[in-house]
Fold:
Amino acid sequence: MGNLPEKFIARMQKRLGSDFPAFLASYERPPYKGLRVNALKISPEDFAARAPFPLGERVPWEPTAFYTEEEKPGADVYHFAGLYYLQEPSAMVAAPLLGAGKGERVLDLCAAPGGKTTQLASDMGGTGVLIANEIDRKRAQILAENIARMGICNSAVMSASPQSLAVVFPAYFDKILVDAPCSGEGMFKKEENAIPAWSEGNVAMCAERQKGILDAAAEMLAGGGRLVYSTCTFAEEEDEWQAEAFLKRHPEFSLLAMKKLYPHEARGEGHFAVLFEKRDGERSARPSLRKCSSGRGFGADLSGAAKAWEVFAEDFFVRPPAGTLRAAGARLFLAGEELPALEHAQAAQIGVGVEAGEWDGKRFKPTHALAMAVKKGDVRRFVSLSREESERYLKGETVESDLPDGWCVVGVEEFPLGLGKIVGGVVKNHLPKWLRKYH
Ligand code: SAM
Structure:
């Protein structure tokens, strides 16, 4: 790779000394690729037994992940079914360091497109509360789509600045991940724009921004809670020095662990992660919603929608799922009671729980995310396709079924791919157009 910024090369040479030639040589090999199995849907062992392409070794720091050299691992039907997430292997180091546990309140503060959110969700096993926040609204939508594909039900997606989120959630979370926007020195191979965007000035700007994000995260962490700060850069201003400065500003925190993966030492493109713990102290019982401005959206009148949902759920599910129905305009969400009632924070909220459907005042129409969140045995009509047949469904074609008429979930083997509607043995395809193959 001949176009690395000169100043970057000089900085790395100074930092790495005799290791520098090995670091530079790492740019000559193709980037490592990783695949993380979605434990909410399948175990790594079961996935390995039916993997559609060769899997390499396990990623040492993430027990559910494998290396792969497959050219297009995202084109396989199992990817559409959310059985795995494609993630740069060294980026998988941060979430296990945080150790999100069952039943905890967890915040992923800089979450899109969702690599680490979906990893945290897998660790949480569908329990507790996972708030995934992304400041950029467009990227927050992509985050919501990835959360839906992976069948995650215990999350809320928000799009707010860390500072405004800190007003809502003071001392609320048990665990927080700050995967900060950074100068991306570990992304030079993967993202073409990372090289021209790099400058020492940008490193300094990123460091200043990260400081503000970390301070907001510190406010939101409950006493005794843990915080992981990570970047995909090697710059000390954003990594080690950032961590040191944070500890100086926040004596209530201590450092538990620090990891820096370099591409010449570990099988990954490079990542930094540090684990802090907050001294015992206050843990808020609930979010501080009084301080939020209210407006239209979540919390709309649900009387007609609730009845329509009931009728649909009775027909669709073997046993209607638990959860409270919440509305954001015409969109209906099914969320567990433990997810914070953010009716007044709707300006920042993209979704909560599972998007169940749309209600136009007359008719209820189920949503793709609902299909992705079910298990085969949950619904009355599950049209199970072979891998070959699934390709037809993914292209938007109809398939056949001898099940009774009505809304159904179409899946590859036992894993949901989306919705269909059976009429006289023909399954009308309801996979959203933007999710279709070759759309
Ligand atoms: N955690 C993500 C994953 O694993 O897929 C990657 C996150 S990326 C490294 C950092 C994110 O921070 C970007 O999506 C970016 O839009 C967001 N961001 C940018 N400026 C921000 C700010 N001032 N506060 C919080 N997040 C910001």
The chain has a mean pLDDT of 93. Residues 293-340+355-371 form one domain. The two ends are 35 Å apart (CA to CA).
